[in-house]
Description:
Elements: H1 4-9, E1 15-17, H2 26-34, E2 39-42, H3 48-61, E3 66-71, H4 77-86, E4 91-95, H5 100-108, E5 112-117, H6 120-128, E6 134-137, E7 143-144, H7 150-160, E8 165-168, H8 174-182, E9 187-190, H9 192-195, H10 204-212, E10 218-221, E11 229-232, H11 235-245, H12 250-257, H13 260-265, H14 290-306
Parallel strand pairs: 1-9, 2-3, 3-4, 4-5, 5-6, 6-8, 8-9
Antiparallel strand pairs: 7-11, 10-11
Amino acid sequence: MKTRITEILGIEYPIIQGGMAWVATHELAAAVSEAGGLGIIGAGGAPASFVREQIQKAKAQTDKPFGVNIMLMNPEADEIAKVVVDEGVKVVTTGAGNPAKYMEMWKAANVKVIPVVASVALAKLMERGGADAVVAEGTESGGHIGSTTTMALVPQVVDAVNIPVIAAGGIADGRGFAAAFMLGAEGVQMGTRFVAATECIVHEKYKAMLIKAKDIDSAVTGLSTGHPVRSIRNKMTKEYLKLEKDGADLMELEKLTLGSLRKAVVEGDVVNGTIMAGQIAGLVKKEQPCKEIIDEIMSEGMELLNKTF
Ligand code: TUI
């Protein structure tokens, strides 16, 4: 299958793995790239030195292209932006902000830049700034989210820009893949489905929570602070939502979430930690190698796209 996304990125299938903080390590990124998609290392809130190590490890595991996601609220984002250039990373995706100030440096180094956006306005701004593509991410996603659904966002972004659009949010199988292409996307980005991959290093208790989760098992915290985050409902989200309802201040709320994602991913604390996952978690039923996930989605997706009624 050839789209502008497979051409620009030099990959076999238009499937991109989301750059999830703490979750998307070199193990997962290399496995996705080896399987023909685009693996992405998630810089999250990690220091630049950690991101450099992750890149070097991924390079030792695969000769295929992979990317790095830079979460723009990271205090070391400026340094990480330089590390990717320094290490010769081919693709950068960004999240939770506007990457305009790095664009010139990345373009000069021939890095393909794909900002993740949650609105038409930011997609247009990114195109004007020289982005090679955008990921239009709907509110069905896990982690930090916007408010528009994938179904509504993707076609509106497709109509607003000339660069290729990658759909994200609520996509986890061949049906979601085909639907995204029907909306005009030329690729998909998936996070939640890859959290259950064999190669994904999250704690087994995190994976078990995801596999057990149903359609309505996520909650959105942080709406009052302007940084909404979707994760699987647990003691931590309940406490956070109660504090928010009672009008707690930012400091108090931040105390609860500081290091909470790491707590769930690394330590397996699924009670007090944050288990980020999308609304599509109910479709993710088992642990599987990345290659199996990608092959399954491509065959199911292509069959649907070729079907005539
Ligand atoms: O970035 C994501 N998803 C994320 S980042 C993350 S790490 C984190 N951990 C705890 C709290 C907060 C973050 C977990 N998940 N997705 C891409 C995305 N970007 N979704 C929405 C946006 C976005 C939101 C506002 C992009 C830009 C924006 O504002 C643009 C501006 O002008 O500043």
